[in-house]
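I am still getting used to backbone structure tokens and would like to learn alongside you. Please make up or recall a protein chain and show it to me in full. Would you write everything just below, so we can both look at the same thing?
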Amino acid sequence: MKIEFNLNRVILFIILIIVFYTIFILFADLEKFSSEFKKINLYFVPLILGIHLISLFFYSLRQKVLLDSLDIRLSLKQNIIFQFTGYSMLITPGGLGELIKTHFLKQIHSKKYVETVPVVLAEKYHNLFALTVIITVMLFFKSDFEIEIIVGIIWILLIISLAIIKSHKIFLVNKLPKIGIFKKIFENMTDFSSTLLMLTQKKVFVKCFCLGLIAVFTDAIAIYLCFLAFGIHYSFIDSTLFTGISLVVGAISFLPGGIGITDLSIAGLLVRSGIITSLALTLTIFIRFMITWSTVLIGIITLRFALRNRMNKNSTEIS
């Protein structure tokens, strides 16, 4: 896996994102968008970003639990850098570009892909699992038939996925292209299956679930503050349901960062709830930049930092 190739793809996806949001803003009417954007209470911006960073920290703790369970020991600092580096690739389809983390583990810690790819997959599973649990709890307080249908389907997929892992029948891997990382996995199917099983052991699974739940709930608070920044006093339940289900749909769409699907879903639910279109679109963009795209930016900065340090280390060793 060549990092240069990944960075080129990231640049391409960034261009596509810029084009999408340009169209998004033009649809909202540039003048109205500008007017709505001026309503933002800037006091909330550092607060939102700060709370979101706390959420990212809990995600990194969850990653450490997964790595420790495989006897891959990283310091807290290394673990955070490692986690944040993966965020640079959130804008790849399905966020699978986060597999760049497995490349670093192989290069720096001599860990095989078959040992580390399951960690990324486990993180994806726990992200969806924790978010679905939060949404399900919220539905007990406010019923929404359409959201309930989607959540029901997600629960079926989550249960089937876990059952497949527990039964050692990872037959879907046979459908993956047998190139690069996937070729290594296919050649070591038994080890891959065993590693996934280790990551779903009760003690590890519960710890990861709890940390994921805290992280998702913390992000839900940040999203609620996004509503308040616009002076929209919706309940915490409403803000969580509207954005949560949209993030789930975006995640399973496998589009880069859920671009388009997540945004239109959030905006659509906001309009359905009575918010005017221009405000709904502006709030959607604000939420996405505060939560999703700020994370990608953090990831890109961390990746550049990690690569620079790696290059400096190599130069020192050569000299």
In short: The two ends are 27 Å apart (CA to CA). The chain is about 80% helix and 0% strand.
